[in-house]
Structure formats: structure tokens, C-alpha cells
């Protein structure tokens, strides 16, 4: 069986939220690729999975592909990617969030 990534249609929207592993470390990396001309993303984190509590913990330049490294505040338990702008018409966006396995000790 081959695992295959499925992108989402590019839209200005908040992405699916993910819970962080409590012992998984304190660093996050977001990587993305997009078939639209450019895309601007924010990495947001929250203590609880409540929309109004999400705050920006990392931002991207407006680019076609790239990555964002972020140090996660100790109380953040949920993260998501927020697409804030794009150009070039709707396309497909692939974004992944990787949690560091380094506990920062």
C-alpha cells in the first residue's frame, strides 16, 4: 500500500487543527507547496481548541513553497495552518506540520 498526500483547494481559511504530543518536544516546522501563484500562511497555536484562543506562533513569506520554523510556547496544545492570502487563482495546497522530537533539554 502506498501512502499518498492529498492537497486541498487553496482558499483563505483556517485549516484542520491538530493536538500536539505532550512529550513530543517544543519545536514545530510547517512545510508547504501550492499550485497557485503565491500563498501566505500562518502557524497558529492554542491552549484549548477554541477558535478565539488561537494566536500566531509563526508566519511565512508570500511564496509558492517554503517552510516555517517555530518554537512552541510551553502551554500550546493545539496547532493549525491559517491561509491568509493567495494569488494566481485557486490551486492546490499541501501543508504539513512536523513536531520536533527534541525536548529542548
Overview of the structural elements:
The protein is mostly beta strands and 105 residues long. The chain has strands at residues 8-9, 13-14, 18-19, 27-34, 38-46, 55-59, 65-71, 78-87, 92-99. The strands form two sheets. Strands 2, 3, 5, 6 and 8 form a five-stranded antiparallel beta sheet that branches. The protein is globular and about 40 Å long. The N and C termini lie far apart (38 Å). The mean pLDDT is 79.
Briefly, what is this?
With 105 residues, this protein is mainly beta.
The run of helices and strands is EEEEEEEEE
Any idea what the radius of gyration is? 14 Å
Count of helical stretches: 0
Mind describing the biggest β-sheet?
5 strands, antiparallel
Shape descriptor reads globular
Terminal-residue CA separation: 38 Å
Which structural class best describes the helix and strand composition?
mainly beta
Care to count the β-strands? 9
Percent strand: over 45%
Contiguous low-pLDDT stretches (5 residues minimum) are: none
Helix content: under 10%
Amino acid at each position: 500500500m502506498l501512502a499518498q498526500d492529498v492537497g486541498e483547494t487553496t482558499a483563505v481559511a483556517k485549516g484542520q487543527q491538530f493536538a500536539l504530543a505532550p512529550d513530543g518536544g517544543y519545536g514545530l516546522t510547517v512545510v508547504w507547496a501550492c499550485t497557485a501563484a503565491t500563498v501566505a500562511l500562518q502557524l497558529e497555536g492554542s491552549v484549548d481548541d477554541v477558535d478565539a484562543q488561537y494566536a500566531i506562533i509563526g508566519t511565512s513569506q508570500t511564496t509558492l513553497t517554503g517552510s516555517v520554523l517555530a518554537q512552541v510556547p510551553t502551554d500550546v496544545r493545539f496547532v493549525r495552518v491559517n491561509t491568509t492570502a493567495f494569488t494566481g487563482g485557486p490551486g492546490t495546497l499541501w501543508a504539513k506540520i512536523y513536531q520536533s522530537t527534541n525536548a529542548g533539554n
